Amino acid sequence: MNAPDNSTQADAKPTPSDLQRSFLRHLKHTIVKDKYSATPADLYLALAYAVRDMLAERWLETQQAYYRNNAKRVYYISMEFLMGRTLGNSLINLGIMEEWEGALKQLGIDATDLQESEWDAGLGNGGLGRLAACFLDSLATMSLPAYGYGIRFEYGMFFQKIVDGGQYETPDNWLRYGNPWEFGRQEHLHKIRYHGRVTEYRDEEGMQRHDWVDTHDVMAMAYDVPVPGYGNETVNTLRLWSAKSTRDFELSFFNQGNYIGAVESKMRTENISKVLYPADHMAEGKELRLRQEYFLSSATVQDIFYRFSKKHGDVSILPTKVAIQLNDTHPTLAIPELVRILLDEKLLAWDDAWKISVETFAYTNHTVLPEALETWPVRILENILPRHLQIIYQINDHFLREVASRFPDDMERLRRMSIVAEEGEKHIRMAHLAIVGSHSVNGVSALHSQILKDDLFHDFYEMWPERFNNKTNGITQRRWLKHANRWLADLVSSRIGHGWITDLGELARLRELADDREFQQQWIEVKQANKRHLADLILRDTGVRVSADSLFDCQTKRIHEYKRQLLNVLHVITRYNRIKATPGCAITPRTVIFSGKAAPSYFMAKLIIQLITAVGAVVNNDPAIHGLLKVVFMPNYNVSLAECIFPAADLSEQISTAGTEASGTGNMKYALNGALTIGTLDGANIEIMEEVGRDNIFIFGLTSKQVTHLKRAGYHPRDHYLSDPELKQALDMIAGGTFSPDDPDRFRPISDNLLANDHYLLLADYASYITSQEQVDRLYQEPYEWARRSILNTAGMGKFSSDRTIAEYAREIWNIQPEIIRPTRRFNI
Ligand SMILES: *Cc1c(COP(=O)(O)O)cnc(C)c1O
C-alpha cells in the first residue's frame, strides 16, 4: 500500500491578495499590531494564524467523516512527540508554500525568515519522539483515521548551551509567546485518580467486585494540535494532555480558610505535566515519572472509551473499532487501566475484559539496553495506584498459570517470565506486562526484532511466536527531503517528477541517472550550496570557520556510550597525529561535526562533550594542521538544526556497537539527503546496506553475533591498546592531559573506562574503523565517483519512508483502512 494518489487537491488556489488580506487581518485583529510595531515574532504569528484558518474546515470535516462512517481508529500513545516547527510543514502539506512566499514577498516580507522565528516543539528526547512525529505525518498523508496522544509538557527538552566547553542546560519555555497550533478544549476533561484504597463488594450476581475510593484527583485537559496530510484533505488530531487541579480539591482547602494551602496544592497537582524527563535510553525511577505515565495512559483510555461509547453500547466489539499502539513501555499502564474500566465500571467478567484488552493493544519495543527497560517498585505502585497493582497481580496469576501448563515443572522459566521481579525489592517489569497484554510485539528493524526473539524476549517468543513481528522504522520524506533540502528536492523532481513525495520508491528511478555527468555535477552543486549554508551556521554558533570544500563528516544524535561518539573522537585524534607526523601530507581535508544532548545526570556523556570541544580547541588552533582538520560541536541539537545538517553532510557516522541501536532513523535521514554512511552492521544500517548496495556504504566492525561471542569468551581491551601504537598514542593523549592542560586528569575517567571495561567494544572496532575511514578519504578524492554513490544512496531510500512503515502497521497490526476525505469547499480564508 502506497500513500493514495492525493490528487483531490486545490484546483482553485487562493490569490496573492486573498493571502495578504488574511495575513494583514490577523496582524491587525488577532495580534493587534501594524507594520510599524510588528516584531518578526508578530509577523510569524500572523502568518501562522492565517495558515491555521486554512486547516480549520478540513479538520472539522475529517473528524466528522470518521464519526459519520464509524471508522476503526488507531491511537498512537507516546510520552514523546518531537515535532519541531509546524509552519513550514503545514505550508508544504497544504501545497501553498510558493503561493505564500510570493504573497509575502509583495509585502516585503521573507517567508523563510518568518519560519525561523518559530520555536521548536521539543516534546521528546530523540529518535523515539521523532518517530512518533514522522508517523503522524504518514498517517494523515495516507488518509488513515488516527490520533496521537501525548502530554503537553510545559517545558520540553532542555536548551543546550556550551559553556567552558561543557553542556549547560536551560529550561525550554516553549509556550512563552503562545502556541498558535494548539486549541485548548476546556470541555474535554478527564479525572485522573491517584492513591486512595480499594474496597470489595459482591454484585447482584454474587461476583466479587472492587471500588477504588478516597483518591487524590487531578484533571487532564485536552489541547488539540492539527496534523495535516500532504496533498489531501485529511487533518488528524494530536491530543496532548495538560494537568489541572480539580475544583473540589481546592474547595476543601478553601472551606478550612487555608487559601495559600489551596493554591499550593493546585500547583503541586499541576506539576504532573510540567517537564519532560530528559534521559534517553535510561529509565528514571522517579515517582513523578510514574504519575506522568499513568496520567497519559488513563486520560487517553478514558477518552478512547468516551468516543467509542458515543456509537456503541457493546464493549465486546471494542477491538473491531479501536487499535492502540504503545510507543515503548511508557504508556503500558493503559493496559491495566482498560482492564480496570471493563471490570470495575462495565462490570465484565475477567476473561471477557482480558480478551478485549489483549485484542486492542499492541506494543513496540525500542531498546534492548538493560538500563532502559522500565521496572517500578511494587511499593511505589501500591501507594500511587493500588487498584492497578491488584490487577497487574491478577494478570500475572493468569499468565503464570498459562506458562506452567505449557511448560510444566520449569520453575526457572516462571521466575524469568514473571511480570513481578522477585530478586531484591519487588518490581513490576513493564515490558513483560506489555507483552502479556498485547496481541502484537514488534521491534523496529530486522536485526532488532530478531534479537527480541532470540534473546531479550526468547521465553515469550517460545510461548507466543505469532505475536512477534518486525516494523522497520522510517522517516517522512515531506519533512526530511522536500522541506529540509529544497534544492535537492527540486533537482530530483526535475528529473523524475513529484511522485516520490508520496511514493518514495520512485527514487529508484534516480539509479539510471547515477552515471550521468551533468546530473552528477548538479548533485555536487546542491551539496556544495547546502554545505556553504551550514558553514555559515557553524561560524555563527561556534565561531569556527570551516571550508565547504572539506569533507563534512557528521555524527549528530543523543550523546550515549553505546552510540560511540568516543570512537569517532579516537579517529579524529589519530588523524590529527598523522597530519602532525607527516607535514605536507595529502590527506583529505575534513570537518568533523558533532551535535547532540547528554542527559543532565549522565556523567560520562557530559564528559564526552567536553572532550569533543577540547579536542576541537587543540586541533582547530594548531597551525601545523593547516586547516586540514576541523572539529566542531554544534550546540542544541534539535529538529530544526537537524534540518540544516542532514542536507549538508557528506559522511554519516552510524557507528554504534552492533546489537545496541534498535534501528536508528538519523541514518535514514542522512542517506536520503545523499550522505554516504560509515557504519556498523547494526539496526537499520543493515537494511540500508541491502538497499543501497554493499559497494555504496562503508561497513566496518564486529557483527552482533561476534559481539556476543567476544563478550562470552572474555574481552580484553588492553590487548588492543598494547598492540596498536596509534590507538595507544590517542588514549595516552586523553589520559595525559593533551586536551586538558589546565587539568591533566580531566579526561582520565574516559581512558580508564576504555582500558578497564570498554563495555561497548570501541577498542575492538578501532582498527577496522580507521581502515574504513581511509577508504572514505580515497573515495572523496574522486568527486564524480563519490557523487555517483551519493545518488545511489538517495535512490535506494524508498524502503525507509515512514509511509511504508505505517502501511505495514495498518495492514498487519491495526487492521484499519484509509478514510478518504472529500473536498467540501475550496480554501476559505
Ligand atoms: C532523527 C533524529 C534523532 C534520532 O537520531 P539517531 O541517529 O537515530 O539516534 C534524534 N534527534 C533528532 C532531532 C532527530 O531529528
From TrEMBL:
Pfam families: Phosphorylase
Class of the enzyme per the UniProt entry, highest EC level: transferase
Cellular component terms (Gene Ontology): cytoplasm
A Gene Ontology molecular function term of the record: pyridoxal phosphate binding
Family designation: Belongs to the glycogen phosphorylase family.
Name of the protein: Alpha-1,4 glucan phosphorylase
Keywords of this entry: Carbohydrate metabolism, Glycosyltransferase, Phosphoprotein, Pyridoxal phosphate, Transferase
InterPro entries: Glycg_phsphrylas (IPR011833), Glyco_trans_35 (IPR000811), Pyridoxal_P_attach_site (IPR035090)
Biological-process GO terms, alphabetical: glycogen catabolic process
Chain positions with N6-(pyridoxal phosphate)lysine modification: K669
Catalyzed reactions: [(1->4)-alpha-D-glucosyl](n) + phosphate = [(1->4)-alpha-D-glucosyl](n-1) + alpha-D-glucose 1-phosphate
Record PANTHER family: GLYCOGEN PHOSPHORYLASE (PTHR11468), GLYCOGEN PHOSPHORYLASE, LIVER FORM (PTHR11468:SF3)
EC number(s) reported in the record: 2.4.1.1
The protein's role, per its UniProt record: Phosphorylase is an important allosteric enzyme in carbohydrate metabolism. Enzymes from different sources differ in their regulatory mechanisms and in their natural substrates. However, all known phosphorylases share catalytic and structural properties. Allosteric enzyme that catalyzes the rate-limiting step in glycogen catabolism, the phosphorolytic cleavage of glycogen to produce glucose-1-phosphate, and plays a central role in maintaining cellular and organismal glucose homeostasis.
Cofactor: pyridoxal 5'-phosphate
